[in-house]
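Sorry, I am new here, but would you mind making up a protein's amino acid sequence and the tokens describing how it folds?
***
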Amino acid sequence: MIDDDNSYLADFRARLDLPGIIDVHTHFMPERVLSKVWSYFDSVGPLTGRSWPIAYREDEQVRLKTLRDFGVRAFTSLVYPHKPEMAAWLNDWTAEFAARTPECLHTATFYPEPGAADYVATALERGARVFKVHIQVGDFPPGDPLLTPVWGLLEDAGVPALIHCGSGPAPGRFTGPEPIAELLRRFPRLKLIVAHMGTPEYAQFLDLAERHDGVYLDTTMVWTDFSEADAPFPVAEYGRVREYGERILFGSDFPNIPYSYGHAIQALERLELGDDWVGQVCYRNAVDLFSLS
């Protein structure tokens, strides 16, 4: 593990000649929502036999300063509803958060419900640049008919959805690669960022990236000591990880991680896929995808 994240990350950026780090998988939410998320993680130990201490359980301004001190130059405010009539007001909050947080990639979300297309259209008009979808928590199929117009709007706008659709850490009724493969058959131009590299179905989601140019994967928690203990990434797939390096994006899950932020970068470096690959993943790919200056 790393003794001093700030020093390690400053050295990392200097060695790779990076202006900063872009983190596509960070969570900023209304405080009462985030407190419920933290309560869930506090209960994970009794549920699974494995504790999940929140490493960055601080108030919002401290968390923002922490990311800035780490050299993170752009990040998301991933929110996700677990029931109807929640997504629209979450989108109101994320729009306000993005307006007062220059580094934030304006994030929005949706849920299969009447009116979803209307509030997604509103979010796009407001400037949303990425949408968060959580198939496991939301407990809905991505192919739900109520979402047909939503996926069409995102496909036409070229705005990606960052989607938790793998079956880790616990499978849901609609998780796994098959529902996503069907979604991409219906919307072949859709841009999707598969969270956590699709854990634990890593190979199957790499298959989808091989077939669809609009499929990206984020590294969130993958290759860390914490994740390797439960869902190790198959070494046999390292070749494709290198091959599709232009469509892999760094994500951390900050602040809801049970280890230091620097360890997520360290986990990528120790793959020994080369500085160019790590630089793409941690900065250049997101610059290209989100047209950042």
In short: The beta strands are 21-23, 72-76, 104-105, 107-109, 130-134, 161-164, 192-194, 215-218, 248-249. The chain has one domain: 1-11+20-290. The domain at 1-11+20-290 is CATH 3.20.20.140 (TIM Barrel). The CA atoms of residues 38 and 54 lie 7 Å apart.
